[in-house]
Input
Amino acid sequence: MSDNTIRIGNVEITAVADAAGLTAPCNLMFPSIEATAWHAHKEFLSDDGSSMNLSITSYLVRSAGKTIIIDTGIGAKDRPFFPNGRLPDALAEIGVSPESIDVVANTHMHIDHVGWHTTLRGEAYVPTFPKSKHLFNKDEWEYFTDPEVANAGGNTYILDCVLPLRDAADIELVGAEYRVTDEITLLPTPGHTPAHQSFIISSAGETGIIWGDICHHPAQVTELWSPVFDMDPPLAQKTREKVVQRIEEEKMRLVAGHFPLPGFGNIVRVDGKRYWRAG
Ligand SMILES: [Zn+2]
Output
């Protein structure tokens, strides 16, 4: 297995980079946090300490005979301020065709998690994974596809990444009780978005979590800071605290798509504080 693949019991998870090596100014993502508070987390900052290192990673999950993609990255729609991602090329490099994906799912419906749900072909946005079932959390779908929300300034990616699926793809709107497979269940982790969800892997006595944007940066595992993108910061912070504690207590494998590639690791305690440790 390459460094980009882990197993949790019988479930295989491969990190597939849509966009790697990105940076974002710390004071833009976390305006209320003093620059000095970042000093303890230099390992995951740019050389001058002013910017966070970031990745946009999708996860290819193989479980119970199904091939699943969780989060589809930023896409390649030439948007201002965002890089173009390369998920389909990255999948091709490991021998995975778009047609072989059975299920596309996402932790939430922000721009960097539904980007490759569609691809522009000629004049039309078509499903990138044409034979796939597309799973969405029902409450998240209802919020983001509301015309008033979808047409608002920062949300118009919904118009080209999500709405074209309505007539062209197999969509299933699901609640927290849904099982993706017998080994993969959903955990409501709201706050970053109204119905942000995480994927709990439980197989052959091992457990893990694919946690979307509960934290964007390893420093948050220790500090529990909320970034500007949290839609409900107090709720996001409560969720973050609860999930970080559970991961530590249950010794779950953590899969974090915005952390340095491949985003696999654990939460460990050093001198009374929690830290993310890659591995
Ligand atoms: Zn994100």
Observations:
- Residues 110, 112-113, 213, 258 surround zinc ion (CB under 6 Å).
- Residues 5-278 form a domain with the Metallo-beta-lactamase; Chain A fold (CATH 3.60.15.10).
